[in-house]
Specification:
By secondary structure, the protein is mainly beta. The chain is 5% helix and 45% strand. It has one domain: TolB, C-terminal domain (Neuraminidase, 6 Propeller), CATH 2.120.10.30. The termini are far apart.
């Protein structure tokens, strides 16, 4: 079991403009009903992505031009599949209880090379993303640690060394929700708020991450929190680059995020009151 320490924060921060217009996707691909519970996606190339949904251990290959399924590959027993990322020719899939699959793409099914258990202080593991510059598979828990208010306030991103095939002993990124709020306010970022039963206005930020990715061009972490429809962007030093409240009409249930080799960003939405979809955002000129 990993241990984590409460981090300190630099509150005087500067943000940078997001290279995407989150209110205007360049393409909206409506996915088949079989992907209503789409939970994660990863790029295969500039024209194809792979997706999983949270009930079946099946990888779906999606054409980015049409949104159609071009193939499926099974790889295990049904379960709560939540994370997926590609590492070269290999694919990693994550079940919410920490079971990880390492496999390659076969002609009829996935070739499972290994399965192993990821044990973290948090439960409900959801997000996987590949940090190509450091050859690491990033893991973002949705659950929070049990303990004091200070411990429950802590958030962390972990990493699996894809070369030596072992979980790194310390988080690669750790922060508190309180610290993020302080950083964001110092930078003039508006924080989502709610009114308590007693009439007090307090921050409503939860930051329970469903997915994680690394921008291949700017090298920032993109952390997607579906429960509060928030996209948090941080640099390698844990400083807030941007915090964005996502439009509910465009992002009814944003569960997955990945980047294409060109730097385009893709975000998938589970079906809620409409079909599941995939939003594509090209970089601003």
């Amino acid at each position: 079991m990993l241990s984590v320490a409460l981090p300190l924060f630099l509150l005087s921060v500067q943000t940078q403009p997001l290279p995407f217009n989150l209110n205007r996707p360049d393409a909206v691909l409506h996915l088949p009903e079989s992907l209503t519970e789409v939970s994660a996606l990863t790029d295969i190339d500039e024209h194809t992505v792979a997706c999983v949904e949270d009930e079946q251990a099946v990888i779906y290959l999606i054409d980015l031009g049409t949104g159609r399924i071009t193939g499926t590959r099974a790889f295990g027993m049904p379960g709560d599949l939540e994370g997926l990322t590609r590492v070269g020719l290999e694919y990693y899939a994550l079940r919410s209880d920490g079971l990880m699959y390492r496999m390659t793409l076969g002609e009829r099914e996935m070739n499972v090379l290994d399965t192993f258990r990821v044990r973290l202080p948090q439960d409900n593991l959801e997000g996987l993303g590949y940090d190509e510059r450091r050859n690491r598979v990033l893991i973002s828990p949705k659950g929070v640690m049990k303990g004091s208010p200070a411990v429950r306030d802590l958030r962390a991103i972990y990493a699996y060394d894809a070369i030596n095939r072992k979980l790194l002993p310390e988080p690669v990124l750790q922060f508190t929700v309180t610290g993020i709020i302080a950083q964001a306010r110092a930078a003039g970022i508006i924080i989502p708020e709610r009114v308590t039963p007693k009439g007090r206005t307090v921050p409503s930020l939860k930051l329970r991450f469903s997915s994680v990715a690394v921008d291949p061009l700017e090298d920032n972490y993109y952390l997607l929190s579906a429960v509060d429809r928030v996209l948090l962007v941080m640099d390698r030093n844990g400083r807030v680059v941007g915090l964005h409240q996502l439009n509910e009409q465009l992002f009814p249930k944003p569960e997955g995020i990945t980047f294409l080799p060109s730097g385009a960003m893709l975000i998938s939405n589970e079906g809620k009151d409409s079909r599941p979809n995939l939003l594509r955002f090209e970089r601003k000129p």
